[in-house]
Design a protein that fits this description.
- It is found in: Membrane.
- It comes from uncultured Nocardioidaceae bacterium.
- The chain has 264 residues and is α/β, with parallel strands linked by helices.
- It folds into two domains: 73 residues, Ubiquitin-like (UB roll) (Roll), CATH 3.10.20; 135 residues, Rossmann fold (3-Layer(aba) Sandwich).
- It is 33% helix and 26% strand.
Length: 264
């Protein structure tokens, strides 16, 4: 309703108002688009270029200083080579993982961004299953046959492993098989093992703390071999052979190397 006394808008005035409204509508969306592009560009610059979200800290979890691993948080951090003021979004996480896994005591590692300015590295340390003498020192052997760390003296509770009788080309495979055998042993049997000799990947021999020998063969069917040996140990003997668990044997004399036996 038109107010009393108000002058009616002339036709040309209404035309001008509509024209101004159309012009305003026409420029609104391009301006909003430009503002959005500017906002995206600023955000991209802040995340990928500027030092505003640069790495300030490297957090390490899973590393514990121990006598054998000697894997400290500081050692892991030193392995993570991130240049100063590197934007967090541009950090090479795969490169960090590769660098950390080069440490002998690290079994595996992961790396993740922790916004706004941290990298978190999580490591899984190797766990010793046996001890081995190498280069005049006692070293640790993990479940995969990897040698790492060092002991100041022979540790208790771990069997001694040797592959000195193996051919040089087969020594690593023999050690890996010996480690697999030790890992597969049931606790009751593992507690009685004092040393392990692997002359090949198919000829692993255990020596019990009480002096008996056990020809285990390879790590294959270790669960079956363990059950067979548990029964077989009830028979007094100097040596036991469970390398073929379906045909176990006992002997009152010490075992000969499998290679010597097969050559006859």
């Amino acid at each position: 309703m038109r107010r009393a006394g108000a002058r009616p808008a002339r036709p040309h005035e209404r035309f001008l108002r509509r024209r101004r409204a159309v012009r305003s509508q026409r420029w609104r969306w391009p301006l909003l688009g430009l503002a959005l592009l500017a906002l995206v560009a600023a955000a991209g610059w802040a995340v990928f270029v500027s030092p505003l979200l640069a790495v300030r800290q490297v957090d390490v979890t899973g590393a514990a200083t121990s006598e054998v691993a000697r894997l400290s948080v500081e050692k892991v951090r030193a392995q993570v080579d991130v240049p100063a003021d590197t934007p967090l979004a541009r950090v090479d996480l795969e490169g960090i993982v590769g660098a950390v896994e080069e440490l002998p005591s690290v079994a595996s590692a992961t790396a993740a961004r922790d916004w706004p300015s941290s990298v978190t590295v999580t490591v899984v340390e190797r766990r010793p299953v046996a001890a081995i003498e190498a280069h005049g020192a006692w070293r640790a052997l993990d479940a995969g046959g990897v040698i790492f760390g060092a002991y100041r003296r022979l540790p208790g509770g771990l069997p001694q492993v040797s592959a000195s009788q193996a051919e040089p080309a087969e020594r690593d495979a023999a050690l890996a098989e010996a480690a697999a055998v030790v890992t597969a042993l049931e606790p009751a049997i593992a507690a009685r093992v004092s040393s392990v000799e692997a002359s090949s990947r198919d000829d692993v021999v255990l020596r019990l703390a009480s002096g008996e020998q056990v020809r285990w063969g390879s790590a294959e069917d270790s669960a079956v071999k363990a059950r067979v040996l548990t029964v077989l140990l009830r028979v007094p003997a100097a040596a036991y052979d469970v390398s073929v668990p379906e045909l176990p044997t006992t002997s009152q004399t010490a075992l000969e190397p499998a290679s010597s036996t097969s050559s006859r």
